[in-house]
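Section handout 9: paired folding examples.
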Amino acid sequence: MEYTLVSTLVFKWHPVKRVEKGTVAMPEGQDIILYTPKLTPFLMVFAVLCLSMGVGLPFLAEWQLSPLGVSLFLIAAGVWFGPVTVWQRMHYPILQINAEGIYSQSQLLRWEEIDAIYRINTKNGGVFAVDISPNGVIAFFARQGKSLPRSKDMTGPQLALGLPGVRLPLPVDDVLVLIRERFSTEIERYHIDCPIY
């Protein structure tokens, strides 16, 4: 796996320019920014099928009104799952880790809220997982301006983030090593369990 250093300023949670040679952008400083490595073949096949059926359906149905609506829907789905999804995956990181915490899928988990960062073993490979502490759950919901759900179990840490390893450009173990190396101060300060396998 090839790592490329980037000397681009990273503003608070704004994506940086994608590096041509790889899917890992590491600006000067401690920030770790990971992009999805590639589009899954299923999505590409689905997009091509939707586009081809959307274009061909009006000709097969002799330009009747109801197939035209289905055709427009299929073309829109093909465009969304094809070029739009590729553009989003190229320009928006799947995982950002900086001095504030871990940001993924439009949610920020602050270092003080995190209890553990680890790998979950599954039959399909590893999963990058982040647990938040009971106090972290309360702080997270308070920061969101939401009340804590009554059904929430507050006796132990809660899984807050789980990213399958196939969505990361590096193996989960390498991501854990990077976090441990670059954010050892935060891990020690907040007593975060971050094992290296």
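Moving on to protein 2 of 2.
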Amino acid sequence: MSYASKFLNAKGQSCTINRTTSASSKVSIKRSTKAARDLGIREGYWEGLILADAALQSGEVLSITDDRGTEKYLVQSVNTDYASTEHAFFAAKCNAVLKHKRYTQTVDEGGNLVEGWQVLNAAVDAYGEIVTYRLRQEDPGLLDSTKYVFQVPKSISAQLLDRIVYNGNNYQVVSIDDVALEGLCRIQVQADVRPEGEDIPDEPEEPVDPDEQEEPEEPEGEE
């Protein structure tokens, strides 16, 4: 057992990796920058060390609970720290929960067209930034209509024209950068002015077999 692993097991914070089957590990984490000019960046970006046997991957979400509550971190990149043989990582502190929808058209068993917004991901942990004049100066790739930029896991399979619901408001995905980070994509969203539409349930109700319906009782005749 390496010195780093002994340290993490003895002094590290307990964390949970949010997977299909969640995993637990030990982590040491700190802010990546002490920048004072941009408080959002100072609070948003973190780095740390985690036990290698956790097999942490880019795009996963770490949950850390302490006496102040639970914080979630969206893992941006992971590499092996050969000095300690453990895994070093960079992450963004989640500050938004998004609902991810897509407009779909299907045909039901009766041959009727069913169209509306299907909820693909009901709660996506993300890191978001509101687009300001300063951010536009630093990032010339921002579209004129972009309101927010979100970092989200690639696993949600976001597509252009998808709908993102944030703080009760609808936004339309207008740009996706899925190249910069292995497990994340950076999406730009603008105000969605399309009709609200109806949500399509994930599991539509099964049609009732007429043969299984109960026969209505006939009223008793007068004698």
